[in-house]
Predict the 3D structure of the following.
Amino acid sequence: MKPTLLVLAAGMGSRYGGLKQMDPMGPNGETVLDYSVYDAIRAGFGRVVFIIREDFAEAFRQGVGSRFAHLIQVEYAFQDLADLPPGFSVPEGREKPWGTAHAVRAARHLVQESFAVINADDFYGSDAYARAATFLGMPRPETDKAHYAMVGYPLINTLSDHGDVNRGICTRSDNGLLTGVEEYVKIVRDADGLVRGNALDGLRKEVCEVTPVSMNFWAFTHCFYEHLESDFIDFLTAFGSVDKSEYYIPTVVDTLIRAGKADCSVLDTTSHWFGVTYPEDKQHVVASIRKLIESGEYPSDLTQGVIHA
């Protein structure tokens, strides 16, 4: 069975100032998502599930989803603040969503196969999709431990020139397995030339420029949903009443690794990542896509060049 691609598209892009998933970046009005789905199709993915908010579902279907309906099976899942396990409810006054892991949970009734997870507004590159698809297609040994993967990019290749970013900072063993992920926020190159960010403990720390970071490109077998449900209950018990607490995918994976329930390969990629966090980033993305077209990595018109695996 071909793997499914889950696309996290519920965010409205508050720092960017609009629904950046629909912003044209390519020469024929293509969005970053157009290139993501194109790469997924030629890597061998069989279906795409967009995880969105129901309040802009119709606009998203018409502006984005309709582009792909004739190319690949398209479905939608809705991230809802009130979609919680039995016994839990939304704390009074909370409006902020629960985070990326909660968004993945929104598709639990649609996905029965192995799947990858990406952000809607990040350009990951064709090699990243090929490596994820290869990993998901590998036979798995019968063990009590689940086997997952993430695509890792050097931190220096993921910074923005126009403001701070949030990243999952990774450590790994000599055999390429992820040993830990720590979410850092407000990462930026400071005036002294060093890159620093705020760890979850609130301290601002220097971060090595070449350390692999999670750009939220993950590869999971279906059993991840069992792990996710149990861990989400633990999260809500501990932090559900904390204002603006968020449930991150890297934190879930880190918890599973430390508990011995899963391991996670770090898939190094030759692809270049780029994304739009701030309006000023758009020019760089547009120029980068143009260069990839000129080098032959992508056709000038994606609708004429889709390769079905």
Q: What stands out?
A: The two ends are 12 Å apart (CA to CA). Residues 224-239 form the longest helix (16 residues). The chain is about 25% helix and 25% strand. The longest strand covers residues 178-189.
